[in-house]
Amino acid sequence: MIPVLLIFIPVFAGLISFLLKNERTVKGWALVSSLIVLATSIGAITTNNPASTLFDATWLPSLGARFTVSLDGMSKMLVLLTAVAFTLVFVATNKNEYKHTAAFYGLMLLTQAGLMGVFLATDCLLFYFFWEFALIPVYFLCSIWGGKKRIAVTFKFFIYTFVGSLFMLVGILYLYFLTPDQSFSLNSFYSLKLTLTQQCNAFLLFFIAFAIKMPIFPLHTWQPDAYEQSPTATTMILSGVMVKMGLFGVIKWLLPIVPLAINRYAMPVMILSVIGVLYASLIAIKQDDVKRLIAYSSIAHIGLMCAAIFSQKNIALEGVLIQMFNHGINVIGLWIVANAIEQQLGTRKLSELGGLAVTAPKLAILTVIMAFANVALPLTNAFIGEFLMFNGIFQYNIWLAAVAGISIILAAVYTLNMVQKIFYGNTVTATEKAIDIDNNVFLSLSITAVLILVLGVFPQPLIDLTKSAVHLLFVK
Amino acid sequence: MNAIILSALAGVVMMLSGIFTNKQSVIKLVSIIALLVLITGNVLQTYGHCSIQIDTKNLLAFSKAGLYFNTLIFISTFVYFILSGKAIEKAGVNVAEYFALIFFVLCGVSILTSFNGLLMFFLGIEILSIPLYILTGSDKRNLKSNEASLKYFLMGSFSTGLMLMGIALVFGATGNFSLNATGQKTAYDVLNAGILAPVGLLFIFISMLFKVSAAPFHFWTPDVYDGAPSVFTSFMSTIVKAAGFYAFIHLFETKSYDLGPSWKLLLTFAIVLTLLVGNITAIFQHSVKRMLAYSSISQAGFMLFSLYSSNTLAKEGIFIYTVAYSFATIGVFAILIYLKDYTFDGYNGLAKTQPVLAFTNTVFLLSLAGIPLTAGFFGKYFMLASAVKAGAPLMLVIVAVLFAAISVYYYFKVIQAMYFKQGDAELNDNVPTSFKTALIAIAIVIILIGIFPSTVLNWLYF
Questions:
Q1: Same domain assignment for residues A54 and A195
Q2: Whether residues A170 and A313 fall in one domain
């Protein structure tokens, strides 16, 4: 029953919020809804009772599609990430002003429902439905409330992902007609016995969709623009949670179904990923806009995760799962910082900032923690994940690991450079009169910082949560 | 039989009603009542009650699927009357005649869903087409409308001539019009019938491609759809086209496998070309009405898949597609008619002034683009699924989805204009609340079908 709640609480909350008139009510309502979802998802990760983690209902009997949603180790973690992310976003951006506040929050909540559905669905057609369902509200969010170039940029983003998902639809149909019982259920797909050619066909059709969503070099061109132009609250969701859809898709819907094809294409995909990691890191160094910098840094991190998945090593996969959660937390933390700076100072340009640590010490300290996590310094949560991932890539190919390893140094360069340019040096006109962050931002940043440090020192709960999932994947 | 008789009668009644009253609202009311009677009569026959039995010497054969398709067409017409009834009243002075002509078209549709021989097939096509020529030219003082009508008439009669020629050749080769006569040669036993029958079938095929506006015989479509009064374009591009497809499938479904690989090759060619022409040209249109004309060509390309695969899935698919496509297009046109400016810019800022219109229009456009959660998704889904099932080359399916992605471009341009661009879209008229309510109801139906398409399909098997 829990999965159904996780999907439908945001749906109803979202629909109701369209009808609300008062701005404050809407914001409160969205926050309450996200807290309820958070509580439900905490309930979800603690329970193992199949009655509460699985829900199955007839949907389209003639097509062999059922409304099946269930919680396994991986989806538990991503559900928790989604719930935490939305709560953090709503708290941190509480002071942001929007025109049509009700519609904004309504669409945000619908996005949450779509994301939950993607992570929970164990029926392929349902998965496809939610995959698209998560996209539509985001399209409107970015196009209505975004920056100057929002229409063209968001449209590019939409077309890219829509083309990808149409390929996936063909792939789904292709596999569907190969299943013996003509069903879309995950178990039927897992029990498929495919030849290498069939696996390769299916792999290519699915992987285009996932690669665009992650995104993998050279399909990444939509991303920096989309992140820059979207309203920051949406960007947080895009980069914190939505990009995980691609990684999640590969792990859940490709790895167990087409292992031979994964093995066959591992090398080219890993090379592309590593190129993407380096390329994005190098561009990040050159960025002047904080949002674009974080966007490129995010591409680099996701590329590394993709490479780790394709190394097909148990240990790397564990690292990816852990990192999916941690990266979500860290990047949202960075976006909160970016949002706080932009809201107060009206600029995101590194060249126009400086010396903010003098006037906003709390923000400075918390940002430094985020920055360390972004560099994956030991004792921060990102370290364990990156360590495991590099371990796996190293086992697969030393050279790839070595080249990808450069990205750690580059990450330190651009992240610390950003911190330095914003917070240290002499104060400039923009930062002279700045005041420190308000309680909302402080609260959300502190929560993020606590999560970073606690999971950095004691990552065992996350490892336990993902271990079972990884074992299951490799047994299949 | 009910549907054929009742629709013809309704046509006559409508013509006469023009004599007795000049009040347009009365005429509209009569037409809606006549349509409801028609629906009832057809539904009753579907379940074997109160059907009029006439020995048609095996010229007509009523199947459950055909009758059910009638119902869907009539319901679409009902939606059309509700949404565009007012626009029909405004299209010209002879309102009663317009309604009468529409009923005659429905009569043609009813014959096309039940023909059992090439003779009745031809009659159905003619009964369907002739009223359309008149409706296209109904805006008598508009040169464009006249031109469209003449063009349509000339091209249409040429293609009908081709069809007749084909039928004659097939008859010459097999000595029979019937599609499934027992114990003797049917019109489809073409394999041992020499060169005449295949050539005849090819002619019929070409003229049908013309009727459903598939490439490379689509050239009339944009001009006719653009020139005709918008309200009749809406009717032509939805209900009539869907009926044409049903007839097309009905004509070729039983024997399509015997026609050999060249048949599939021909269809593949037609599908790819139709998708290409429809989508690529639609991108470059400035007028939404013309864009819809080209988009209707591209939608025809998708519907051709049902002919390609001709299996159960395809048949189910064409039902869903008919409903999804007709409802959405009728809705888009109904809103278009209210606008002063038919270009994309005419939609600028509609969301601010008319949120209901903008929202429902968005749902319709999303459905046309085939986005999940709308009926249009399942229309496309069934078409693609049936093709994959029928063993179509994966490349063909991939090409089709790529064109579906292209179609997003021009449908979303309208959404962008409505929501994201500044401006104040000017309307011709005040929008009555009843119209808004109807739009919302149809949008809800589209979304419901998009979540539970079985609700439409289950009736097929009851």
A1: yes
A2: no
Task: Give strand pairing partners of A56.
Answer: A68
- Which residue type does B208 have? M
Question: Could you give the C-alpha distances from B397 to A194, A327, B272, B302, B400, in angstroms and in order?
Answer: 20, 37, 10, 10, 5
8 A C-beta contact, residue A182 and residue A64: yes
Which residues 133-172 of B have a C-beta within 8 angstroms of A?
none
Is A125 in the same domain as A249?
yes
Residue B444 pLDDT level (bands cut at 50, 70, 90) = very high
Distance CA A276, CA A300 (A): 6
List chain B residues with CB under 8 Å of A133.
372-373
- Region B357-377: mean pLDDT is 91
0.80 cut: is pTM over it?
yes
One domain for residues A339 and A418? yes
Q: How far is A129 from chain B (nearest CA, A)?
A: 6
Reading the block at residue A207, the tokens are 């992987």
Q: What are phi and psi of B374, to 5 degrees?
A: -120, 160
Per-residue pLDDT, B182:
47
Domain total in chain A: 2
Rounded distance, CA B402 to CA B9, Å?
46
Interhelix angle B312-338/B375-389, rounded to 10 degrees, is 150
Residues of A in contact with B419 (CB under 8 A): 140, 143-144
pLDDT tens, position by position, A159-216: 889 999 999 999 999 999 888 888 888 888 888 888 888 899 999 999 999 999 888 8
Domain that holds residue A317: 265-476
Residue of A nearest to B457 (CA): A62
- Shared-domain flag, residues A304 and A172: no
Are A322 and A351 contained in the same domain? yes
Cβ contact, residue pair B401, A155, below 8 Å: no
Residue in chain A closest to B402 (alpha carbons) equals A163
- Last-in-domain residue among A239, A257, A275: A257
- In this prediction the ipTM stands at 0.89
Give the up-direction half-sphere exposure of residue B448: CA atoms within 13 A in the CB hemisphere: 11
Contacts with A143 from chain B: Cβ below 8 Å: 416, 419-420
Q: How many angstroms separate the CA atoms of A9 and B114, rounded?
A: 49
Chain B residues in contact with A159 by the CB 8 A cut-off are 405, 408-409
User: Distance (Å) from the C-alpha of residue B57 to the closest C-alpha of chain A?
Assistant: 37
Neighbour tally for A45: CB within 10 Å: 18
For residue A410, the distance in angstroms to the closest alpha carbon of chain B comes to 37
Name the residue in chain A with its Cα closest to that of B316.
A62
Domain boundaries, chain B: 260-462
| Closest to B452 measured CA to CA, from A58, A132, A14 | A58
Cross-strand pairs, A57: A67
What is the spatial distance between Cα B282 and Cα B296, in angstroms, rounded to a whole number?
Answer: 9
List Cβ neighbours of A225 (8 Å cut-off, separation of 6 or more): A149, A153, A156, A157
Chain B: closest CA distance from residue A203 (Å): 14
Task: Give the H or E element holding residue B142.
Answer: none
Q: Which two tokens stand for residue A340?
A: 């706080």
Residues in chain B with CB shorter than 8 Å from the CB of A158 are 408, 412
pLDDT for B190: 53
Residues A162 and A272 in one domain: no
DSSP string, B66-133: HHHHHHHHHHHHHHHHHHHHHHHHHH-S-HHHHHHHHHHHHHHHHHHTTB-BHHHHHHHHHHHHHHHH
Portion 355-384 of B in contact with A at CB < 8 A: 366, 371-373, 381, 384
